[in-house]
Structure formats: structure tokens, C-alpha cells
Specification:
This protein is an alpha/beta fold. The protein has 2 domains: about 280 residues, FAD/NAD(P)-binding domain (3-Layer(bba) Sandwich); about 160 residues, 3-Layer(bba) Sandwich (FAD/NAD(P)-binding domain). About 35% of the residues lie in helices and about 20% in strands. It is built from 16 helices and 22 strands. The strands form 5 sheets. Strands 1, 2, 3, 4, 5, 6, 7, 18, 19 and 20 form a 10-stranded mixed beta sheet that branches. The chain has a 5-stranded parallel beta sheet with strand order 8-17-9-10-13. α1 runs parallel beside α12 and α5 packs across α6. It is globular. The structure holds 3-acetylpyridine adenine dinucleotide.
């Protein structure tokens, strides 16, 4: 069990895991299986599930098929549909956590305030809202899309009605019959707008850039299928493998042959034509950049919702928000009761990076602000010993399931923890040249991708115009790169003799 040090009351743990979403939960389970039982998972929210616990907006569902959006070690024969709803995914994570018997080491309602590397003890000193930890390693599973980004719009702070971000839905606000505006038309908006359209009086949807949206091939799993998945797990594995192969087959179109994505554009245009007859609206919703440059979205309900009588799609730029209205560049003022902000997340400048201070006394935000986010194999960062980032730089996907990437990283981290223990290493840190070579190779491979050549602005790109978020290849190549812990790419330190004494003296 974790122990407290004598003077500062810092709780000593081998591993401090940040976040109880898919990444943190998998880390806890796999560390436990590897015999690394001395860990704590700190989670600012009140339960497991991460994004699937927090994002409760109406219509929230996964846009990756259920068979693949689950752990390989915890297949779920009970998924209700091809694409799972938020509640079901959250319940799945809860069940997985309970079955694995790890919840006794989860500290909920506990947010990380800051983390500092202490060279004397070769440990991380982590301040949380519920006390201090001294941890051998920090494993960050805090999520790439977890910090809501509010738009900087003149006057927005003076709005007198209800206002909330899509990822922090206020269920106390009854939208029935109200005049509502939604700013943003990304993955969250296209799911929630069709639900709001059914209940509000009037809905204004503010679109800055249209997205390519293809039909959602949705269906419920039958009772026979579920029974078969339960009785013959091999069947579900086969179904999962089929989905995996299908999605991976699409990767080259994103990474090397973006012209192939014209097929998606044709599919999308048919999707529009089926739902919208007004040529002006058709023009507004038809993108002019290459499909895939921004995330390709899937929906059967978005275009019909925009075509509904109680919805206006506004494409004139927003100039300001008043106490009760949104004003656009054409001078129009549209009164509203409720403002829903579906403007996405801080991705390339994650706020948590400001609070992590490494070996040289610099924060991760400082280091990354110089040349953009970078990490060796998307997982470890030079200057930040014993720190692991799950869903770190260049690990996100435009074509497949993040759970596969998360599991790949967790395997690597568990291997690293094992290597540290077996070799008696107090600290490991990727060599600067190993990280630079990895980053250069990833950026080289990024050049022909649709995210670079597709002619759009997207949250995949940082302030330097580099894509530091996505993995430019198939997911199995990522897994191959992380298949074993490559100690030769790391500077290692054996325990300093003062370490134990210093810990005791704390
Ligand atoms: O956020 P977004 P999201 N004024 O950043 C607009 C995942 N996800 O929450 O395109 C006006 O995609 C912005 O316009 P533009 C998924 O990975 C997954 O929707 O920048 N508009 C855009 O339309 C997704 O990609 C699921 O010109 C402003 C929107 O706001 C990621 O989360 C479901 C603005 C933001 O879209 C983020 O999706 C939901 C401003 N100042 C989300 N600022 C699944 O199903 C921004 N916008 C798994």
C-alpha cells in the first residue's frame, strides 16, 4: 500500500497515473498484471470513463465501431449497436474497472495542480487538490481532448443567458421551446444539433468551416449476434479483426494517396443531396478542401436537421455577442436564450503542460512552445525523466480506434517499468538525439498526407503549421515501433545513494 513520508506527508507510490479514462484504466490494469501494484490513479472527475463520463451532450455517441472501440483484453458481447452511445461506453469502462479489481487505488475528485521532477530523490513530486504524492514515474492519461476551448469572441462574457461548452453539458437547462445558438460544426456539434432541433423553438447553427460528412451505417446488434459473441468469443474477435482491417485499409488514402479521398467527397455530396434541396444551403455545407484534411464525420441526421424549418445555418462570421444575441459581420443580430459553444479543445497547447516541470526546471509548455509538441515514440520526453504520455504527440488517429494506440503505449510503458525494476534503474529519459530523429521521421512522413496537403486549417496543426497530433501511418506500424522497450534510446540513472535517505528525510 502507498506510504506517507514522514515530514511532508507526501504519499509514496511507484507509479502515479493521471486520469481514469481509457488510458489511465488500461495502465492500472496492465501494471497490476505485471506485478507493479504500487500505483495510484488520480482523477479530477468523480468516476472512471474520462471523456465518456464527462461528455454527456445529447446524442453523444462514438464514431468508431464498438467492436474496435473496446479493449482487446475486455471484449464486450453486449454492445447494443454498431456505434455505441456515450452512456454504454462509460458503463463498459466501469465494468472493466470493477472486474479488474483496481478501483481501490483510484483517487477521484483529485486534480493534479503541478508536478515537479526532484533530481535529489529522482522522483516526481506531484501536488494534487487532495494532497501530495512522491512518485517514481508519472503516467499521463489525461486525454488529448479534455480541456474545453472557449472561443474568443467580443462580448461573450457579457452574455446574460445560459452558456456552456458541449463537453460540459448543463442538464439543468431546459431547452424546450427556447431560442438556442450553437457555435461550431465539428464532431460534437453534428451529434448534438439534430437532438436539439427536435426540442428547441429555434436553432441558429454558426458554421465557420463545413465538414465532409458521410452516412452512418448504423444498426442494432441482434439478440442472436450477442448470444453468439458471448458463447463463441472467437466470433467477436473475428468481427473485430474485420473492422480493424477495413479501417486500416483506409489509412494510405490519408497518408500517401489523398486523391483517393475524392470517393469520400462523392459519398458526402450524395448524402447532402438526399437531405437538402435548397441550393444555397447545399453550397454552404459543401466543403472546398480535400476530405480527410479535417476529421471526416459520420451522420445521417445532420443535414436533415439543418434543412428543418426551425433551424438556420449562419455562415457570416460572428463579430460579437451581446447580452442576449449574436451579431454577425453582415450586421444581423439574432436573439437567443441559450448559447451552446461546441468549439473544441486545447490540443497542441494542452494547459496541463504548464504545470509539469522537468529536470532542467522548465515546464513542458515552455519546451514545447519553442518548436511544438514532441515526444520519443509519442510517449517519453527528453528533459522529463520517468514521465510517460499516453496519447502524446503524433499518436492520435484520423482513421481508426484510439484504444489500439493506447494499448500499444501501455504495453511499452509496462515494459519500461519492468526494465527499470529488473535493472535497478532510478530514472530513464529519452536521449535528445533519439527524440529528434523520431520527430524528424514523423514530420517527414507527414509531408504527403492529406492533413498537410488538403488545404484546410485544423486542430491537428500547431502554431508552426506542423501536424503534431496525428500518427501518419497504419496503427500496426505504431505498435511495431513500441513493441519492446528500447533502453538504448534512453539515458539511464541508477539510484543515487542519497535517494532512500533523502526520501526518509523528507
Ligand atoms: O471540436 P472541433 P469537437 N468561432 O474542434 C468551430 C472528437 N470527438 O468537440 O472548423 C466560430 O472538431 C470550428 O470551426 P473551424 C473528435 O476527434 C469524437 O466537435 O475551426 N467557430 C469547428 O467547427 C473530434 O475531432 C467524437 O473553422 C469556431 C468547431 O468549432 C474532436 O473530438 C464525438 C470558433 C470545433 O470543432 C473535437 O470535436 C465528438 C470560433 N471562435 C468529438 N472556434 C466521437 O464520436 C472554433 N470554432 C468519438
Amino acid at each position: 500500500m502507498p506510504k506517507k513520508t514522514s515530514k511532508t506527508e507526501a504519499t509514496l507510490v511507484d507509479h502515479l497515473i493521471v486520469g481514469a479514462g481509457f488510458a489511465g484504466l488500461a495502465s492500472a490494469i496492465k501494471l497490476q498484471e505485471a506485478g507493479e501494484r504500487d500505483f495510484v490513479v488520480v482523477e479530477k472527475d468523480s468516476d472512471v470513463g474520462g471523456t465518456w463520463h464527462i461528455n454527456t451532450y445529447p446524442g453523444a455517441e462514438c464514431d468508431v465501431p464498438s467492436q474496435l472501440y473496446s479493449y482487446s483484453f475486455a471484449l464486450n458481447p453486449d454492445w447494443s449497436k454498431v456505434y455505441s452511445p456515450q452512456q454504454e461506453i462509460w458503463e463498459y469502462t466501469k465494468k472493466v474497472a470493477e472486474d479488474a479489481d483496481v478501483l481501490d487505488r483510484f483517487a477521484f475528485n483529485t486534480a493534479v495542480i503541478d508536478a515537479k521532477w526532484d533530481a535529489t530523490t529522482q522522483r516526481w513530486l506531484v501536488n494534487t487538490t487532495n494532497g501530495q504524492y512522491s512518485a517514481r514515474t508519472v503516467i499521463s492519461g489525461s486525454g488529448g481532448l479534455s480541456e474545453p476551448r472557449m472561443p474568443e469572441i467580443d462580448g461573450i462574457e457579457d452574455f446574460q443567458g445560459e452558456i456552456f461548452h458541449s463537453s460540459r453539458w448543463d442538464h439543468d437547462v431546459d431547452l424546450t421551446g427556447k431560442r438556442v445558438a450553437v457555435i461550431g460544426t465539428g464532431a460534437s456539434s453534428i451529434q448534438l444539433v439534430p437532438e436539439l432541433q427536435k426540442i428547441v423553438g429555434h436553432l441558429d447553427v454558426y458554421q465557420r468551416t463545413p465538414n465532409w460528412i458521410i452516412p452512418r451505417n448504423e444498426r442494432r446488434f441482434t439478440a442472436v449476434e450477442k448470444a453468439a459473441f458471448r458463447r463463441v468469443p472467437g466470433l467477436q474477435k473475428a468481427a473485430r479483426a474485420a473492422v480493424y482491417a477495413q479501417l486500416e485499409g483506409r489509412a494510405p488514402a490519408f497518408t500517401r494517396f489523398p486523391q483517393l479521398l475524392q470517393v469520400v467527397e462523392r459519398q458526402c455530396k450524395k448524402n447532402i443531396a438526399k437531405a437538402i434541396s435548397d441550393p444555397e444551403l447545399v453550397a454552404k455545407v459543401t466543403p472546398t478542401y480535400r476530405a480527410g484534411c479535417k476529421r471526416i464525420l459520420i451522420s445521417n441526421a445532420w443535414y436533415p436537421a439543418l434543412a428543418a424549418d426551425n433551424v438556420d445555418l449562419v455562415t457570416d462570421p460572428i463579430t460579437k455577442v451581446t447580452g442576449d444575441a449574436i451579431v454577425t459581420a453582415d450586421g444581423a443580430e439574432r436573439p437567443i436564450d441559450v448559447l451552446v459553444v461546441a468549439t473544441g479543445f486545447y490540443v497542441t497547447e494542452p494547459p496541463i503542460a504548464q504545470h509539469i516541470t522537468g529536470r532542467e526546471g522548465r515546464t513542458l509548455a515552455d519546451v514545447w512552445s519553442e518548436a511544438g509538441m514532441a515526444a520519443y515514440k509519442g510517449t517519453t520526453v527528453h528533459g522529463f525523466p520517468n514521465m510517460f504520455q499516453i496519447v502524446g504527440p503524433n499518436t492520435a488517429l484520423g482513421h481508426s480506434s484510439m484504444i489500439y494506440i493506447i494499448e500499444s503505449q501501455v504495453r511499452y510503458i509496462v515494459e519500461a517499468a519492468r526494465a527499470m525494476r529488473s535493472k535497478g534503474l532510478a530514472a530513464i529519459e529519452p536521449k535528445a538525439e533519439a527524440q529528434a530523429a523520431w520527430t524528424a521521421e514523423v514530420q517527414e512522413r507527414m509531408k504527403p498526407t492529406v492533413w498537410t496537403t488538403g488545404g484546410c486549417a485544423s486542430w491537428y496543426l500547431d502554431k508552426f503549421g506542423n501536424n503534431t497530433t496525428l500518427w501518419p501511418g497504419q496503427t500496426f506500424t505504431f505498435r511495431q515501433h513500441l513493441s519492446k522497450f528500447d533502453a538504448e534510446a534512453y539515458d539511464v540513472a541508477t539510484p543515487v545513494t542519497v535517494s532512500t535517505a533523502a526520501e526518509e528525510a523528507l
